[in-house]
Every structure is written in C-alpha cells, then in structure tokens.
Design a protein that fits this description.
Number of strands: 12
Strand content: 15-25%
Bound molecules: nicotinamide-adenine-dinucleotide
Distance between the termini: 39 Å
Low-confidence stretches: none
Order of helices and strands: HHEEEHEHEHHEHEEHEHEEHEHHHH
Strand order of the largest sheet: 9-8-7-6-10-11-12
Radius of gyration: 20 Å
Structural class: alpha/beta
C-alpha cells in the first residue's frame, strides 16, 4: 500500500480519533482545511526571459490562534504535500502548546537553479500574491526546506512595504532584523531535548548513544552539533550528494567546517562514504531522518537497525514503515513532537516582535526546554491512558486541545 503524504497524515489522525472514540462530527471538523491558495508566480529571469512557478499556501486550522507554518522551496512541492504539512502544523502547535494554528506554504521550484536575485523576485512575487491572506494576527510563515533567514527577511520587507512596519508577519528572520536569538538552532535543539526525554524515560542517557542523521541542513547540522556537545556519537550523516560514516563517531565540528567550505559532507577526511539508502539502515541507536518525507518505507523498515527513529523531518515514515516499526518494537518519536522546537521558538520570536522587546538567548533556550519537557509529559500521559504508540498519543493530545478550542469558540 503506497499513500500520498496527506493520506498518511490523515491515517495517523484517524488512529487518534479512534483511540479517543471521537465521532464523525469532529473528524469532519478537524480534517478539513480552512483555505487553500494556489498562485502563479511569473517573474523576470536574469537572462531576460520570464519564469513561471506555482506557489501554494494551505491554511489548515486557526481555532487555537493565527495560522502558522513554514515555506518550502522544492521541485517536489505539490498541493498534496503542502496540505499534509499544513495539517501537521495544526497538531504540532497543539502538542507544543503554543497559541497558533497550522498552515504551510511551498513553491514548486528547484532553488539551486535560480540566482539569488531570481529567488528574491520569486519570494517577493509570492508575498504580493498571498499578502491578503497573511499577517501577524492572521498567518505567519517561517523557514522550511531551502528557505532561510534571508528569504524570511525578503518576506518581512515586502509585506512591510505594503502594510507598514510589521516584523511579526514572519518568523525565522535574521537576528539583526527582528529575529530571535536561538531560532536558527531551535529545531535541532528541540530534537535533542525530545530524544533526551525519551531515552531518560527508559533509564538511558545521551552520552555514548549513537546517531545516524539523514540531512545536514538547518535541522540536521544543528542537531549533530548539539549531540556532539552532549557526548553522543554521530556515526553517519548525509546530504543530497551522499553520506559519510565513522563507526567511532564523526568529528562534528570539523565536519561542519568541511561542509561549509565544500558545500557538502561528502569526502570528509577520515570517514568512509555511505549512500543515503545505506545510512537509513546503518548500525546506530537512533536514526534521524532530517531531510525529506516518506524515506522510511515498507522496503527498508525491516532492515532499520536503530531502536529509535527521531522524526526531525516532517512525515518521513510511511504507514507501512510505521506498522513494521511498531511490530519490531522500534520507537518512533513523531514529527509533531520531535521537530516542534522550531515553531516553539518562532512563537517566542513573534512574542518579542509584538512586545518590541528582545529576549536573551538563555531565556529563549530555557523556555524552549520547558515547552519540550511539558509536551513529552503530556504525550507520556496520553500513551498511558490510551495504551497506544507515541505517535497516536501525540496526535490524541493535539486533537483534544484543538477540539476544546473548536468547541469553546463554536462554529459561528
Ligand atoms: P534545509 O534545506 O536546511 O536542509 C535540507 C537537507 O536535506 C540538506 O542537507 C539537503 O542536502 C538534504 N537533502 C535534500 N534532499 C535530499 C535527499 N534526496 N536525500 C538526502 N538528503 C537530502 O532544510 P531544513 O530546514 O533542515 O529541513 C529539513 C526537514 O526538517 C524538513 O522535512 C523540514 O520540513 C523539517 N523541519 C524544519 C524546521 C526548521 O525550522 N527549519 C522545523 C520543523 C521541521
């Protein structure tokens, strides 16, 4: 059985609905996205021609607060994927208990084929096309795959040109431009706290625990750095060009320098090369998909040697793989908890923008720590009450919070 991303997310949600014994009324209410926007983005290319790209913004639910979610630039972006990611954001903001709903945006584009000027024009055109639907109290975008602080700065600037100074319209901005200390590291730091809490619940420590990480972008590289600092062993990492492996643990600070200097982790001195497929079945305690969705499948799940899968990426595990992991006792730490650190610190950034007051990095990190620990406790309680997997428990916790807000506000 192969399913698309949205069907996979809905399947996981339905498992939570069934564990909670929720009726059809709520299933309809909670599964239906509020708004789906598709825009044509025609821009001037550097060679004098015109380029035409398709952009999406899906606003899934705003019963707990403004729509919130990242913006992805990738050649595989389509409406189905954006729908799935928007829904995941609704449940993620609820698990992390930050006062937002869920949304996601994406542009179907290979950003590596565009110059910086073309990317800027594309980003500004996207803001021009969706600016009626976003805003600091309406819908607040953030970085995701292939978008970063610079792209967020263009969004802030373009929106502010049209609506006046408005840094709270987007998060993940550069620290020099109303961003928050700690935002860049936040998703990786949140992943670290999540796995630390899960290990601690079974009496284990990060120290000496081995990790294999697929993806060495914002999330994967920060997580690798923080794991290394915490005394864990990062035995393999990869990016789109391939991977590197060292059984005794990679020298992560040197690897970061190498990746910065060469643009990839491959050919890192002292390591042996490994394919992205082999990384997923490498010998390690914790496997971390931190790149694309649907990489763990019915085909490779039986061969995964890790005892834990830490879902840093959104939607990395297919339904078949999830079933196999459950049967094999491999613990999946679901994306809606594992990578919630990013949106949590986005919330702190938005708060600082509204307060016009900057928090120190230590304050940001302490508040992030509290949200991630509290979320873990909520999920653990839900697992105990419902006797279910961590994924179902996390969805159930989120569904109850969104249901409560929906019931209290009423349908209007
Ligand atoms: P990024 O663009 O910074 O990095 C992506 C990494 O994945 C790069 O190293 C890239 O080379 C690698 N990659 C791309 N295609 C690949 C392939 N086919 N095989 C192997 N590696 C490949 O993106 P990011 O922000 O680090 O996001 C990574 C994942 O984390 C995504 O699923 C994203 O939705 C999720 N996420 C990101 C954030 C955030 O704050 N950035 C928050 C929550 C979740």
């Amino acid at each position: 059985m192969t399913m698309n991303a949205y069907a996979t997310t809905n399947h996981y949600l339905e498992q939570a609905f069934s564990a909670l014994k929720l009726g059809e009324r709520y299933e309809t209410l909670l599964l239906t996205p509020t708004r789906e926007i598709r825009v044509e983005l025609v821009i001037q290319m550097d060679d004098g021609g015109v380029g035409n790209f398709i952009g999406y913004r899906v606003q899934h639910d705003n019963s707990r607060g403004p729509f919130k979610g990242g913006l992805r630039y990738h050649p595989e972006v389509d409406l189905d994927e954006v729908r799935s990611l928007a829904s995941l954001m609704t449940w993620k903001t609820a698990v992390a208990n930050v006062p937002f709903g869920g949304a996601k945006g994406g542009i179907h584009v290979d950003p590596n084929r565009l110059s910086k000027r073309e990317l800027e024009r594309l980003t500004r055109r996207f803001v021009q096309q969706i600016d009626v639907a976003i805003g600091p109290t309406t819908d607040i975008p953030a970085p995701d795959m292939n978008t970063n602080a610079r792209v967020m700065a263009w969004i802030f600037d373009e929106y502010s040109r049209r609506h006046g100074f408005n840094p709270g319209v987007v998060t993940g901005k550069p620290v020099e431009l109303h961003g928050s200390y700690g935002r860049e590291a936040a998703t990786g730091r949140g992943c670290l706290i999540a796995i630390r809490e899960v290990l601690a619940a079974s009496g284990r420590k990060l120290l000496g625990t081995s990790f294999a990480i697929q993806g060495f972008g914002n999330v994967g590289s920060w997580l690798a750095r923080l794991l290394h600092e915490a005394g864990a062993k990062v035995v393999a990492v990869s990016d789109i060009k391939g991977g590197v492996h060292a059984g005794d643990g990679l020298d992560v600070p040197a690897l970061l320098d190498h990746a910065r200097a060469t643009g990839s982790v491959i050919d890192f001195p002292g390591s042996r090369s490994i394919s992205n497929d082999d990384l997923l079945i490498a010998d390690c305690d914790v496997l971390v998909p931190a790149a694309l969705g649907h990489v763990l499948t019915g085909a490779n799940a039986p061969h995964v040697r890790a005892k834990y899968v830490l879902e840093a990426a959104n939607g990395p595990t297919t339904i078949e793989a999830d079933d196999i992991f459950r049967q094999r006792g491999v613990v999946c730490i679901p994306d809606i908890y594992a990578n919630a650190g990013g949106v949590t610190v986005s919330y702190f950034e938005w708060t600082q923008n509204i307060q016009k007051f900057r928090w120190a990095e230590a304050q940001v990190n302490a508040a992030l720590e509290q949200h991630m620990v509290d979320a873990h406790q909520g999920i653990a309680r839900s697992m105990k009450e419902l006797g279910c997997s961590m994924r179902t428990a996390a969805f159930a916790l989120a569904v109850l919070r969104v249901k409560e807000a929906t019931d209290t506000r009423g349908l209007g």
